[in-house]
Amino acid sequence: MNKLILLSDSEQQLRVARVTECMRAEGVEAVLLADNASKYYITGRVFSGYVYITADGYVACAVQRPVELDGPEVVYIHKPEELPGVLPALPARVGLELDTMSWSSVARMVKALGIEAPANASAIMRVARSIKTQAEIDLIAASGVRQERVYRRIPHLYTEGMTDIELQVEIERASRLEGCLGQFRISGDSMELFMGNIIAGDNADAPSPYDFAMGGAGMHPSLPVGANGSEIKPGNTVMVDVNGNYTGYMTDMTRVFSLGEIAPEAVKAHECSRRIHRELCAMGVPGCQAKDLYERAVAIADEEGLKDYFMGHRQHARFIGHGLGIEINELPVIAPRSRDIITPGQVIALEPKFVIPHVGAVGIENTYHVTADGWKCLTNSPEEIIALR
Amino acid sequence: MNKLILLSDSEQQLRVARVTECMRAEGVEAVLLADNASKYYITGRVFSGYVYITADGYVACAVQRPVELDGPEVVYIHKPEELPGVLPALPARVGLELDTMSWSSVARMVKALGIEAPANASAIMRVARSIKTQAEIDLIAASGVRQERVYRRIPHLYTEGMTDIELQVEIERASRLEGCLGQFRISGDSMELFMGNIIAGDNADAPSPYDFAMGGAGMHPSLPVGANGSEIKPGNTVMVDVNGNYTGYMTDMTRVFSLGEIAPEAVKAHECSRRIHRELCAMGVPGCQAKDLYERAVAIADEEGLKDYFMGHRQHARFIGHGLGIEINELPVIAPRSRDIITPGQVIALEPKFVIPHVGAVGIENTYHVTADGWKCLTNSPEEIIALR
Q1: What average pLDDT is seen over chain A?
Q2: Where are the beta strands (DSSP E) in B188-291?
Q3: N or C: which end of chain A has fewer CB within 10 A?
Q4: pLDDT tens string A160-188
Q5: pTM for this structure?
Q6: A175 to chain B nearest CA, in Å?
Q7: B 83-142 → A contacts, CB under 8 A
Q8: Residue B6: its chain A contacts at CB < 8 A?
Q9: pLDDT score for A211
Q10: Does the CB of A190 have a partner CB in chain B at under 8 Å?
Q11: Choosing among A32, A104, A328, which should be mutated to test the B contact, i.e. which has the most B CBs within 10 A?
């Protein structure tokens, strides 16, 4: 038998306390969690089944697969209909993850549990997970260290005449050999991306269907994002934004590489991105509104005459940053209508980027840990545009 | 502007006819599709937005992103609430994809459309997509040809002392350079896998939380499936089951490699898998029940004294085959309680596999096109156990 719970008791208690605090704020008496990200958060392990938590801190796991897991309050079931027989009597207001569970799964669960209208546990888990414990920060920082090692090797992976996808494949290999797990966890299932986004030259200006900061036409209309197979040419930038999941927790980092001389306007925009990082890090003290950070970033881009290129050119992204951790799109969202407030314990990726026609994408992305003493960068590669050779 | 619809008129008509036939059988007058797989099926492109189809064959696309798509019956919207203003008057029975849309998205859409109880379009799309057009078969076959090229190179990718994950990274690189898109489309969001499953030696016996045919402990408890970093040792098999998505359509192929001499029982089980393939291909004439194929496979394994090792050892999978195409888990399902009937135009991956303790996993997986004249194999690599060196 293997222990189901891989977190230490004290770590699990911290996380459960975050969840129950959010439950009480919403008047929810119990949650039944089915999402892999939620199960990993509460147990340190992904399994098939459910985690049940009551507002007073009782935790039980109902497991379908794998076999042979053990621990206090671990029960095995074959199907959700067995849950009422293995869980304590349910309170009136039970929450399910309505934003990620399918309509059919919720309908089946509501019937199985014999409850009326479920509360929405998705918002509870999003808010709970937005403030990281120190152990979570350590896992994110550890991902950052390994991702930095890969980024430092990128100029050595480039050989003359390479296409964007050929360079991407070598970066993927270097990442995987460094221990990258590959998997990008994205909340919701309409955004798709494989390993990361490498965009060279004018492909940066190809609009994509997904709500990522940058687009790219992709290699195929079934996955229309990122590298499109074009050769990296002198005067082009190559923006590298690849998967930083080394620990089940991700860092998000973007750096820009160049071949030959690039236009002064691109260099200026890149430096503008770095200025936005510096100003937003200073401005984002606890209590600051996320939307004010967004507005300030737009104002700086405007001030430098770069607004038309900010966050895209033919198509513009509607945010400049996002929380991350187990998933790449957590709270807070740094966007115009965000109601999120900057709070210590958040981990935020800032990605003010520009698309300069005939050059490519420029700007950097860093992952920051918000503390009472300021934002601490967890992705410490050199920030300048780096020559590929 | 770019054409939204990338399929030829005649190809799109064939696919829409499949869908409307299934709609009429279910008494559904219109469907509004949001799933990326469905949108790709009907248009040949993934985009953010919706495809609307009526039972008499009218098709419209409401696009959110990317910008600059064009074509007949293409409209742009910002949010689902705008749909009633841009679509023709809705009939009484509208179907939504209730098995893949989240509860919250369905609730919002039902309100936006002003409809009462939505019908379930998921089953309609699953049935429609289970019978492929010739153009789809050609795309799957093209994936198979490229996947075969990668598999033939595997013995040359192995070097002495490699771990399973190191070999996997080289296979991933070879696949990507051959044009593999990487993305595994899996219906439903609780199954996760990166690129494929490479399992060596006793790691084959580690149970996983996912409903895949084989397990493996994985590199990390946040993604507990597949290679676990163990060295490939003499007497071990290495089962390779990697992503065959080269065209937006997938093939699924498994082959077994070995280091040094392996136990006779493992060779016997591998040959038993090949026998199951031969017998099931002959038995699976149109009209045959999928569950009878499953029972026959189990009977053959039993007859050869291998039942305890069939489809796992510590944990057993509950199916031996599955339809595939845009997604890896389509209809029919070859499982004990399946109600599916073998029908020309289906594409089926058969994967009768065995886990032999202290040796590893054996058995092959092939992707077949079901025709009136028999099953045609689309994954034609040599089927024997192949020596790594």
Answers
A1: 97
A2: 196-200, 237-242, 244-245, 250-251, 255-258
A3: N
A4: 999 999 999 999 999 999 999 999 999 97
A5: 0.97
A6: 10
A7: 96, 98-104, 106-107, 120, 122
A8: 221
A9: 85
A10: yes
A11: A104
| Distances in whole angstroms, Cα of residue B221 to Cα of each of A1, A46, A314 | 15, 6, 41
Residue with the two structure tokens 């992709």 = A218
Residue A189 confidence (pLDDT) above 70: no
Q: Are A141 and A166 in contact (CB under 8 A)?
A: no
Q: What is the mean pLDDT of residues A291-310?
A: 98
Cβ contact, residue pair B181, A223, below 8 Å:
yes
For residues A384 and A178, give the distance between their C-alpha atoms in angstroms, rounded to a whole number: 23
Length of chain A: 389
Tell me which chain B residue has its CA closest to the CA of residue A249. Answer: B222
Q: Which two tokens stand for residue B121?
A: 């379009």
Burial of residue B54, with CB atoms counted within 10 A of its CB: 0-12 exposed, 13-18 middle, 19 or more buried: buried
Residue of B96, B221, B248 lying closest to A6 (CB–CB):
B221
Residues 306-335 (A) with a CB less than 8 A from some CB of B: 314-315, 326
Give yes or no for B3 touching A (CB within 8 A).
Answer: no
Q: What is the pLDDT of residue B189?
A: 67
Residues from chain B contacting residue A129 (CB–CB below 8 Å) = none
- Residues of A whose CB is below 8 A from B64: 209
- Residues A179 and A167 sit within 8 Å (Cβ to Cβ): no
Region(s) of chain B under CATH 3.40.350.10: 2-129
pLDDT at A36 over 80: yes
**CATH fold label, B2-129:** Creatine Amidinohydrolase; Chain A, domain 1 (3.40.350)
CA distance B218 to B225: 4
Residues A339-368: what's their mean pLDDT? 98
Q: Confirm if A124 and A27 have CB atoms less than 8 A apart.
A: no
For chain A, where do the domains classified as CATH 3.90.230.10 start and end? Answer: 134-387
**CATH code for the domain defined by A134-387:** 3.90.230.10
Q: Which residue of A has its CA nearest to B42?
A: A222
ipTM rounded to 2 decimals: 0.97
Looking at chain A, the whole-number percentage of residues with pLDDT higher than 90 is 96
Residues of chain B with pLDDT under 70: 189
The CA distance from B161 to B234, in Å, is: 10
Backbone phi and psi for residue A260, each to the nearest 5 degrees, phi listed first: 65, -165
Q: What is the pLDDT of residue B190?
A: 80
Distance separating alpha carbons of residues A186 and B265, to the nearest angstrom = 43
Q: DSSP letter at B335?
A: S
> Stretch A271-289: mean pLDDT, rounded?
98
